Amino acid sequence: MPRFATKYFGAVEWPDEEMLIFPQGLPAFEHERLFARLAPAGYAPIIFLQSASTPELCFLAAPAAAVDPAYELDAQSTELELVQGVETPLEVLVLLTVREGQAGTANLLAPVAINPSTRRAVQAIRRDRRYSCRHPLAGTPCGNRLAQCL
Amino acid sequence: MLVIRRRTGEALLVSGEAEVEVLEISGGQVKLGIRAPREVLILRKEVKITEEENIAASRSIRVRGLEADASNREEGGSKKS
Fold it and tell me: Are A54 and A28 in contact (CB under 8 A)?
């Protein structure tokens, strides 16, 4: 089982068959193709997306529904072609950003779509203008949990 | 902001080097063709916004109860900023 260093959890062993595969990486991180999705008890709904190749790279994320229960992907995001193919509903996460001295925000403009059958994942940038890349988390279950973590 | 009206088939030049041509207009969408030197980076604006937000999201933060590895934290601060 591959073992790799992580930002927050020391060295972890993580089975290959549970790794998320980003065929294109993520914008600004195009070379980061493999991520482990760490969801330690006590931090839900927060999920840690830890790069398998860069120990210091670990995104905080959450299920989109924990931020906005009505959230849906934009079917026009061309990137979604990369993860479709099997008739499974895509799982949707959003990346969280914490800026120094500010409450957290979620990137609802560019959600991470995951095909649970293939584990392929992509950041699917919306074509519509419905959501912000800095959606305030204050007042959401996710925001409250995040505030307790910081 | 400079505002210019163009019809299908018309173009404009940026710095005399990059040419932007209106290829098609339909249903609230404009199809543009861009001719530019190889070194000119052309990016959809939302991709650039996503890059910037991803970089901000990747910056080190302290999470209560989790100790970011000290050596990792130093590297993370310099490499990704």
Answer: no
